Amino acid sequence: MLSTKKLNFTLKNKKKFYFILIFIFFFITYFNVPKLLNFSPESIKENLKNDSNIKISSISKIEYKIFPTPRLSILNSNFTIGEDIVDTNNSKLEIILNITKILNFKKIKYKKLLISDGSLRINLDNINQLLVNIKKNNKKLIFKKSNLIFLKKNNFSFEINDALMRIDKLGGKKELNINGNFLNNEIFIRFVSTLKNQNNLSVKIPELDIETKVSFKKNNLDNFDGSINIEVFNNFLKFNFIKENNIKLINAFVRSKLVNAALEGEIDLNPNFFLNLKFKITNLNMEKLLPFIQKTYFSNNPNSLSFIKKINGIFTFKSKFKGKITNKNGEVLFENFEIGKSKSYLLNAKIIEFGKKGKVTFNLITAVNYKKDLFKKIQIIGFIIPSTSKVIFEKVLIEGKELSTIKVKEYENIFEDKLVQDSLANIFNEIKIDKYFKNLF
Question: Per the confidence metrics, is the pTM higher than 0.85?
Answer without folding.
Answer: no
